[in-house]
Design brief:
The protein is an alpha/beta fold. The protein is built from nine helices and 13 strands. Strands 1, 2, 6, 7, 8, 9, 11 and 12 form an eight-stranded mixed β-sheet that branches. The protein has a three-stranded antiparallel β-sheet with strand order 3-5-4. It starts with a helix and ends with a helix.
Length: 256
Amino acid sequence: MLNEVTISRAILETYFKKLTDHLEVDVAIVGGGPSGLVAGHDLARAGKKVALFESKLSIGGGIWGGAMGFNEIVVQEAARGLLADFGLRAKEFAPGYYTLDAVHAAAALTARAMEAGLTVFNLTAMEDVVILRDRVAGLVLNWSAIQQLKWHVDPLTIHSRFVLDATGHPACVAETLVRKMNVRLDTETGGLVGEKSMAAEDGERQTVANTREVFPGLYVSGMAAITVCGGHRMGPVFGGMLLSGRKAAQSMLAAL
């Protein structure tokens, strides 16, 4: 016979053990889109302790809707070799263009990353970073609902050796550094360069090129790399996002 209190106790004890076990990690990833999931997968597969924090209920970022709600996405030839690592099924539409079901892509990326050892905390928002010795060394976290309601409820903190900003267009982690710490991420503008209008070929190349450490302890990937370092948007072609996540993981692994 099911006991409601036992069910509640099982959830609470299991969740808070998971959270306690990840108060100190090798890498904290903010944002559960494709670049964050690929980076988390590769880091965890290499044996690193990695936690991903997503403010929304669902994981997968902008993949789910495809384009205009038509749930298909495109991956170009350059990233096709990466698809097999995640069990992603692609169909060739034209030479160098491959289509994937957006729902399956989001689900498969999430599943494979977690199977590799990535721990995901959804409904959890980053509201600040931890600075130790002039270096990003962790995250300040709160429930997403508390942040959205703008209630004055103090957060909790975790420590990490590196933080990856994979928050997409807003580049939330980098923006926080600029706004609160007066960090100059760009020699000309000082702040975030910002994204340019659509140019898919350039945008895909720039996404990967701009994936790097932009401040001690802070890496950027995916559209966050475009917002921070500059580059064009590219729409529903996701090869650059996947390759960006892999590059971020490789860079942090080398540093770790």
